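Quick one, T. Sequence first:
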Amino acid sequence: MFWWLWNYLKGYVIIKVSGFSVERFINLSALKGYIIWDIKSFGRDRMMKASYKDIENIFETAKKCGCSVEVMESYGLPFKAKKAGKKRVFSVGVIIFALAIFILTRFVWIVEVEGNKSVTDSEILEFCKENGVYPGSIINRADFRKLGQDIIIEFDSVNWAAVNIKGTKVIVSVSEKLPQMDIIEPGDYASDIIAKKDGIIESIMTEKGTAVVKAGDVVEKGDVLIEGQVILKDGEVETGRKYEKAQGTVMAKTAVEFETRVNKNKAENVLTGETGKYYKVTLGEAVLTLFKPDENKLYNETTARVISPSIGDFKIPFDIEIINTSFYEEKEKSLTSEEALNECYSIIESKKEELLNSNAFITDQKDEIYETDDEVIIHTYISLIENIGEEVTTNNIRGDMVTDGTKGDINSR
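Structure tokens:
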């Protein structure tokens, strides 16, 4: 009903499209967002309905496609007004439309919150609703200044709040207090470098701290590689330890194993050439879907455009989203053994790219290939040399010193 009324008010025409590229014309029109619907075939010709406002563009598109367009009939309020030779009916429509807009702009349709962090949107919106401000509430009945003051009183973490109305949208702006806490900079803590995976140490370069492993050592994930401390000695005698942030690079031999499978029989989406469109009308929080394709049909969808009417700052409280659809069928595709194998290797290369970085390189790769009636399987074994070091913060304060088992403090923090 809404769609019929909308088209009647805007005006539409029934056209006949002829030529050798009618399908191309339909696809191109849909791509450009022209409103056409109710398409019917008559041999090579197509009859369809089109929005009156798009008719000039439709003629131009048809010319590009080598097609001819003939207007068969015209319907809607604009044509009725022309035929009558009077503006009476049109004026009544304008008055009704203006009255509807006036009524709709008396209500709040959108409430947004900005500037909040610790207090959630839902908490503030619920409080606004309790105080008479919510989508669908009457604008003139709300005291926005008082609501801003009440928000400051209600939420301890809010330092300042203001509620402003812009058209039919209410914007709640808040500023929160900074939390009072003792801040300890992360740089004040010492750290260790630990192993993020199992491996055999290949080399270790220590910049700060003390290495506790050497080349050839076998380490497990979580083992300490470089301690964030410096051993202080008097000759050969240890006199104490000073904590600091460990820095260094630990290269190790690691191994990765994974399996890749590709089915020889796979579903493939094949476009049928059939296209269409449907509409989503949003009014406040309500959403109405019009002319959506059958749920049993398979299709891709893309948003062609969104119509959001407004008059100055006054946003008319509904949106119309035009969604283009392209239908497809799932067809079974059979791969040869070679095609399935190539697809497996393509997947393996993608996985290898995820493994490698500036501090890693592959030293060896072994693939074991298996094939069944239905699929190709590859077991891959990769040997790497990579940096396995990972910095973790300790509970020790950087610069603290332990001497004879007693923690102290030195000036060079």
